[in-house]
Amino acid sequence: MRLAAEHVEWRVHGHRLLDDVSLTVASGETFGLVGPNGSGKTTLLRVLAGLRRPKVGRVLAAGRPMRAMKPHEIARAIAFVEQQADTLDRLEVRQAVALGRTPFLSPLRPWSARDDAIVTQALTDVDMLPLADRLWHTLSGGERQRVHIARALAQQPSALLLDEPTNHLDIRHQLSILRLVRQLPVTVVIALHDLDQAMDCDRIGIMDGGRLVAIGPPREVLTLDRLRRTFGVHADFLDDAVEGRQVLRFRHAL
Ligand SMILES: Nc1ncnc2c1ncn2[C@@H]1O[C@H](COP(=O)(O)OP(=O)(O)OP(=O)(O)O)[C@@H](O)[C@H]1O
User: What is the tally of structural domains in the chain?
Assistant: First the structure.
């Protein structure tokens, strides 16, 4: 599903948190959002998820203005893994992931064996099947994060929005979740702080002070000058002989 923002502005108490933001994410593309703390990544994801409805500009999902879509239509199409996601205290892991199926259930379409299979697959994808019967409050931060991602996967969305999904994860789960996300045949918008991880996205958008200041293939837009100006760091690109590509090496803060 193609996702687009057109000249979106978002203001809170007179502060412009998003300023004339336009982007189009192609169907099936993995689009990385990067930028310093407070640059507007989370705010933009919330707008793209339909949780914020901008008065200036518009958001389109598969060519339809999101403003005209009903909440359950958005919930069927778009899954959002937020940074500070809700707690699911009284639930077992499998029940928490099953919540991802909610938008598809109705009296005419009750829970079925297919829903069970989708939940099991989502748990397997994030390596949480062995903990499927555990209570939410007994999970570690990284395990909770993987449950949130599994719940989004169980939604089988056309677009998946992720806000720093690898935050609490150990390195093995960071790499496996990112590989999984890249391989999904859905549109993905993912906010990342790790710029090396962002290098694996199809394209990235760089946010700075509420504006999208650059969009394009990672190696084209993450220039050393951009790293200095937007991120305030001095860095170099080094050749990685094993993978035959360049990796970032950060030297110091400016
Ligand atoms: N309700 C609010 N009222 C005032 N300012 C807000 C509000 N919500 C967010 N902001 C500010 O808007 C800016 C953008 O916030 P946002 O969370 O989108 O940034 P971010 O790029 O996701 O940051 P981070 O990398 O730290 O997660 C920040 O300066 C934040 O303090």
Answer: 2
DSSP 165-224: TTTT--HHHHHHHHHHHHHSSSEEEEE-S-HHHHTTSSEEEEEETTEEEEEE-HHHHS-H
Instruction: Please give the distance, rounded to the nearest whole angstrom, from the Cα atom of residue 18 to the centre of ligand 1.
Output: 10
- Indicate which atom in ligand 1 lies nearest the CA of residue 83: 27
Model pLDDT, residue 240:
86
pLDDT-flagged residues of the chain (< 70): 85
Distance from the alpha carbon of residue 62 to the mean position of ligand 1, in angstroms: 27
Residue 205 neighbours by CB distance under 10 Å: 24
Mutate to test the pocket of ligand 1, among 12, 13, 16, 43 (most ligand atoms within 8 A of CB): 43
Neighbours of 111 (CB within 10 A): 12
The complex's ipTM works out to: 0.95
Q: Where does the chain have alpha helices with state H?
A: 41-48, 71-77, 93-98, 113-125, 141-154, 171-183, 195-198, 218-221, 224-229
Domain extent at residue 10: 3-222
| Same domain? 232 vs 217 | no
- Name residue, tokens 């305030």: 232
